[in-house]
Amino acid sequence: MILCNVTGCEKRADLYLSSIIINERQVRKIEKMIIARMNRMPIQYILNEAEFMGRRLAVRPGVFIPRPETEIL
Predict the structure, then answer these.
(1) Residue 58 sits in which domain range?
(2) Can you tell me the distance from the alpha carbon of 38 to that of 47, in angstroms, rounded to the nearest whole number?
(3) CA dist., res. 43 & res. 47, Å (int)
(4) Residue among 33, 38, 6, 11 nearest 22 (CA)
(5) Nearest one of 22, 50, 61 to 6, comparing CA atoms
(6) The Release factor glutamine methyltransferase N-terminal domain covers which part of the protein (predicted)?
(7) How many domains does the structure of the chain reveal?
(8) 37/56 same-domain check
(9) How far is Cα 71 from Cα 67, in angstroms, rounded to an integer?
(10) Distance (Å, whole) CA 30 – CA 42
(11) Against a cut of 0.85, is the pTM above it?
(12) Residue 20 carries which DSSP code?
């Protein structure tokens, strides 16, 4: 997910079907995102988006992350 977010690929399958060239700026961004995840930051905050009811919503620290179980309410 982090790699697709940084490189712009849409699906994880894109990583296997194409060769992606990552520049230094992207490497630094990926490293920063991985460190944030290792520090237990939710992936939604790292990617600045969360999916809810088939829609992508912008999220950041201080904003509640939509939970999948609330989709059925």
Answers:
(1) 47-73
(2) 14
(3) 6
(4) 6
(5) 22
(6) 2-47
(7) 2
(8) no
(9) 7
(10) 15
(11) no
(12) -
